[in-house]
Design goal:
Elements lengths: L14 H7 L9 E8 L5 E3 L7 E3 L1 H13 L4 E7 L16 H5 L4 E6 L12 E3 L2 E3 H17 L4 E4 L6 H11 L6 E8 L6 H7 L19 H13 L3 E5 L5 H10 L4 E5 L1 H12 L5 H15 L3 E4 L2 H7 L3
Parallel strand pairs: 1-3, 1-4, 1-12, 4-5, 5-8, 8-9, 9-10, 10-11, 11-12
Antiparallel strand pairs: 2-3, 6-7
Helix pairs in contact: 4-5, 8-10, 9-10
Bound molecules: ligand PBG.
Ligand PBG binds next to α6.
Length: 317
């Protein structure tokens, strides 16, 4: 059968029909809100390149965590932005439990990386002018254990060192945190779309770039291999990052793996929508919802987005 007996438009005629025929639905249950934690009290610094995003001191993080829980968002992911940085990222394993105490029912995820804590801004420690893989694992594992001790439910390594998921799993288990899950930034690309994040986290590398450890954007097979390895090392959830430029990778991962998948709609993806909306070049809310549902359609279960609060407020419970 085909036209004229088949008419695809029949089921698009009304909102009721469209609702009945809708295949993917964005829900508050999918959302994870990223937050940037700085030191001090009553600090609420706007991030210029990310309208609506602030760097918050611990007291403000606590209040934000309550708001996030009240909106029905299940999780937040915390990024620490320390006042003092050094070569080994000493601040990385000094986590505070404030968000978990403020909203115990929330799932608190913490980003495990060294770039926010190192003075050189790289995600690992430097030896002979290079980001040294194996010596970084110990520091990352220490950071993860410190986050678990502070109440993290899930730790999320974003450094892209080889073997870090296994090192973190072992360290957590040995420290009595067998119940803490690992969300692995498994397919994390060396992307231009992290630009605004690096302003927020003051984590731009002081020399070179991250292409020696993050993935080369044209590669898809390699991403699947990264994911397989992270699973084998004990990852509970696999992430693709950024989201929209890599939906093919996400869709392929959905076909291949049985674990929950996460996708990070990153700072640059958020910033470009907000910037165009500010200029009146597109309808920001509609464009954001369309972008996020495309991530859901491609197969993500957890969606990390800076727009989580606005989106949750618009979605029916
Ligand atoms: C830390 C980290 C980055 C992001 C998440 N964790 C930056 C980077 O790798 O340079 C980016 C998130 C975003 O852009 O929203 N390694």
């Amino acid at each position: 059968m085909s036209f004229p007996s088949v008419r695809m438009r029949r089921l698009r005629r009304s909102e009721a029909l469209r609702r009945l025929s809708r295949e993917a639905r964005l829900s508050r249950d999918d959302l994870v809100l990223p937050l940037f934690a700085v030191e001090g009290t009553r600090v609420r610094q706007p991030v210029a390149s990310m309208p609506g995003v602030f760097r918050l001191s611990p007291d403000e993080i606590a209040e934000e965590a309550k708001r996030v829980a009240d909106l029905g968002i299940p999780a937040l992911i915390l990024f620490g932005v320390p006042a003092a940085k050094d070569a080994r990222g000493s601040g990385a394993d000094r986590a505070d439990g404030i968000a978990k105490r403020a909203a115990p029912e929330l799932c608190v995820i913490t980003d495990v990386c060294l770039c926010e804590y190192t003075d050189h801004g790289h995600c690992g420690v430097i030896e002979n002018g290079e980001v040294a893989n194996d010596p970084s694992l110990e520091r990352l594992a220490a950071a993860a254990v410190s986050h678990a001790r502070a109440g993290a439910d899930v730790v999320a390594p974003s450094d892209m060192m080889d073997g870090r998921v296994g090192a973190i799993r072992r360290a957590l288990d040995e420290s009595g945190f067998a119940e803490v899950a690992i969300l692995a930034y498994a397919a994390k690309y060396a992307s231009a779309f992290y630009g605004p994040f690096r302003e927020a986290a003051e984590s731009a590398p002081a020399f070179g770039d991250r292409r020696g450890y993050q993935m080369d954007p044209p590669n898809r097979r390699e991403a699947l291999r990264e994911m397989e390895l992270d699973l084998a090392e004990g990852a509970d959830v696999l992430m693709v990052k950024p989201a929209l430029p890599y939906l093919d990778v996400l869709a392929e991962a959905r076909r291949r793996f049985e674990v929950p998948l996460a996708a990070y709609h990153v700072s640059g993806e958020y910033a470009m929508l907000m910037a165009a909306a500010e200029r009146g070049w597109l309808d920001g809310t509609r464009a954001m919802l369309e972008a996020l549902v495309s991530i859901k359609r491609a197969g993500a279960d957890w969606i990390l987005t800076y727009a989580a609060k606005e989106v949750a407020a618009r979605l029916a419970p």
